[in-house]
Amino acid sequence: MTTTRTPRRRALARTVAGLALALLATACSGGSDASGDGAGGATGRPDERGREAAAGTLRVLASSELADMAPILEAARTSVGVTVRPTYVGTLDAVEQIASGEAEKNYDAVWLSSNDYLRLRPDTAKKITGETPIMASPVALGVRPAVVARLGWDPAHVTWSQLHRAVADGKLTYGMTDPMRSNSGFSALVSVASGLSGAQSALTERDVAGATPRLKEFFTGQKLTSGSSGWLATAYARRTDVDALVNYESVLLSAPGGLTVIRPSDGVVTADYPLTLLTAARPEAKAAAGRLTTFLRTPDTQRQITEKTLRRPVVPGVRPASALARDQRRELPFPGSRKVADGLLDAYDNTLRRPSRTVYVLDTSGSMSGERLERLKKALVELTGDFRDREEVTLMPFGSAVKRDEVRTHTVDPAAPRAALDAIRGDARKLSASGGTAIYSSVQEAYRFLGTSRGDTFTSIVLMTDGENTDGDPATAFDGFHSSLPAEQKRTPVFPILFGDSDRGELDHIANLTGGKLFDARQGSLDGAFEEIRGYQ
After folding, report:
1. The pTM is what?
2. Is residue 6 in a domain?
3. Count of structural domains, the chain
4. pLDDT band at 196, cuts 50/70/90?
5. Burial of 60 by CB count in 10 Å (0-12 exposed, 13-18 middle, 19+ buried)?
6. Which one of 18, 324, 469, 509 is most buried, by most CB atoms within 10 A?
7. CA 245, 251, 252, 258 torsion: positive or negative?
């Protein structure tokens, strides 16, 4: 175990600025800012996002996977006159918004997959009230049927110890979301720590310390990481060398490929999706929330929820969807204090998981001079606070070609991390703008630099550019280059960042070809885009 440090969560609202705002027009509000049928008139008091806080309108900070509840919430609008306006965000980022006071400025309620971590923090627990569970889904493993057969498992009787043994013996690999940014990842981390420690009550530091050798073995099997369940499922579909996914039961049952869902027989951690009011909510919002929760917990709505989302009903007498197994599982103990929870997160980041190896391909062409270059320098300097122990970071600036004499690589030494972090900050501050924009040639250079993946790291390339390709190889040459790479190298994703005048089509093509994901810094901040990518490295 490493010495416990405060987990790195600089992102707060800025990491999700603009996330899902485009969805608001089509999600639960029916594309209208009206308060909905029977909702009454607007109060005339705009919130800080410039939209009216209308009677009958509930502004909700919600876990991203709840986007699939849109049809149910549309039924609530027509049935009980409550229009839900969601803004989707990772669960742990939402906790930070609540703690900082940002949430109460913009929202009336939070609807997260779980309030377990939130309740551990006095600075957030006092800001919520009236939490009501709406549905449930345990964290489980979705395993390729052929792998289940190869291992000779009965899916109903697999334990966490069996899963650990299969990984330790090199017989099982899996993908999992980042526990620092996703509640499914955090719940999976708690699940395996509880399962392998044998804890019978709330997890303690002693439990985690005792299980650390087995936890380190377990996380050698993690071959995919992600900041979101959606991208994880897409990345998994591209890979033939990853046997399983760790996620909510509902997500696994909805995934293509017919995964065999295993809920370990010795226990699970379950999300109960509590709709929770903020104590600062307006009286009219509290009334709307009351009508909404009553509607969501009616037997008819519970049946619709379980059939449409494959989550489990929480109202007695309502049968789960036919795809859901009926046998019960013990609820594994959650950490008993924030210190234990944060220590577990810190241990995962810096000790348990595979280290990261990333090349930052940075546009320092002439068009980046002035404010744009200063924003890039600032973003990189701030990002150093998020680099993990054992992480290898390469800055590869380019103009008309890669500026080879400025390429620098540093590895964060757990015994003395400051030396590498100071060096990265120094290199970032020295960046200068000149030349044209050789996007494709520079990304090829990054692949050559990384060489064949060592197999024991999460390897990725981050591309930041403010313009279109003007120098070096064209897109067609890059496509040919990528197709010629060995299979292991092809699995290195590129995460492009839209910035300035960069071409979405060009960057989207690179992301899709390499199995990466496009991030948009034109709507939010550049440092926010860099920070959001951290969940994928």
Report:
1. 0.85
2. no
3. 3
4. very high
5. buried
6. 469
7. negative
Beta-carbon contacts of residue 348 (< 8 Å; ≥ 6 apart): 179, 180, 189, 219
For range 147-167, the mean pLDDT: 97
- Residue 259 has what DSSP assignment? P
> Which residues does 319 contact at the CB level (< 8 Å), separation at least 6?
303, 306, 313
Percent of the chain with pLDDT strictly greater than 70: 89
Say which residues have a Cβ less than 8 Å from residue 305's Cβ, sequence separation at least 6: 69, 72, 134, 135, 296, 311, 313
Tell me, yes or no, whether 303 and 415 share the same domain. Answer: no
For residues 170 and 207, state if they share a domain: yes
pLDDT digit string, tens, across residues 360-389 = 999 999 999 999 999 999 999 999 999 999
Collapsing DSSP to helix, strand or coil, 350 comes out as helix
What residue numbers bound the domain in which 501 lies?
354-536
* 516's tokens: 């990466």
Whether residue 101 is found in the same domain as residue 193: no
Q: Is residue 322 in a domain?
A: no
Same domain, 381 and 288: no
Average pLDDT, the chain: 88
Please indicate, yes or no, whether residues 344 and 256 belong to a single structural domain of this protein: yes
DSSP 296-340: HTSHHHHHHHHHHH-PEE-STTPPPPTTS--S--PBPPPBSSHHH
Q: For the residues of 408-442, what is the DSSP string, one character each? A: EEEE--TTSHHHHHHHHHHHHHT----S---HHHH
Tell me the one-letter amino acid at 377: K
Asked whether residue 94 is domain-assigned, the answer is yes
Specify if 4 maps to a domain.
Answer: no
The answer to whether residues 322 and 191 touch, using CB atoms and an 8 Å cutoff, is no
Q: Are residues 287 and 421 in the same domain?
A: no
Q: What is the CATH number of the domain that holds 180?
A: 3.40.190.10
* Mean pLDDT computed over 316-325: 97
d(CA 26, CA 168): 46
E strand spans, 184-250: 222-226, 244-248
Q: What is the pLDDT of residues 470-504, one digit of tens each?
A: 999 999 999 999 999 999 999 999 999 999 999 99
- Among candidate residues 237, 222, 169, the one with its CA nearest the CA of residue 192: 222
Q: If 0-12 CB within 10 Å is exposed, 13-18 middle and 19+ buried, where does residue 459 land?
A: buried
Asked if residues 229 and 160 have their Cβ atoms less than 8 Å apart, the reply is no
Q: Percent of the chain at pLDDT above 90?
A: 75
